[in-house]
Amino acid sequence: MQPIVPQVYRIPLGIVNAFLIVSDGLTLIDSGVPGSEAKILHGVRALGYKPQDIHHILVTHCHWDHSGSLQALKKASGATAYMHPLEASMVRRGQAMRPAQPAPGWLNRLIVRLLQTRRSATTIPATEIEHQVSNEAELPIAAGIQPVLTPGHTAGHLAYFWPFHGGVLFVGDAASNLFGLGYSLIYEDLQQGQRSLASLAKLEFEVACFGHGPPIRRAAGRRFRQKWG
Q1: Model confidence at 118, in pLDDT bands (50, 70, 90)?
Q2: Residues near 91 by Cβ (< 8 Å), separated by ≥ 6?
Q3: Whole-model pTM?
């Protein structure tokens, strides 16, 4: 459990991150790969909370490394889940992948090939999603958080913007910070993903939290504008 700004914590889960917002109870963003629930709940308890204090789970997209432990965490906490309708329909069926291609660059292609060799997970435990959300006004969660539709990595990918501490953007896999700020490893539609990144670059935010890679803690919006504005 790593503090990022007051009230926001990163939970490293090996290849992926989940995030916890402490405001009006606990809000979890993404759930990690299947079997991640023990690490996440350990982090919750380390902060002095109970699993039942997780009231909401916001999921960026359907991929197994972001939705894989959703069913287990909902069972442990009683939390309600939020996703875009296109992603929710897959998770309800236990599906975690649509066809996608590596982002440009030989390193992305190599990493994707290595990951596919090790494990290519296309299914997860089927899980109910209570709330379908899209690009809309802020949700009454964590004192107000706004879903931002960012298709490209997946068709219904959502980032989440939390307007505190200068603005905190939970990027999901719209971009990554594995080897510096850049593309995610794979995209269902790269051109659409590029348009989404240009849209994110118009937002004002100080901090960016990524599904893959460490957060950018200062001037993150400026970094996005320099790269994709």
Answers
A1: very low
A2: 59, 62, 67, 70, 83, 124, 126, 127, 129
A3: 0.95
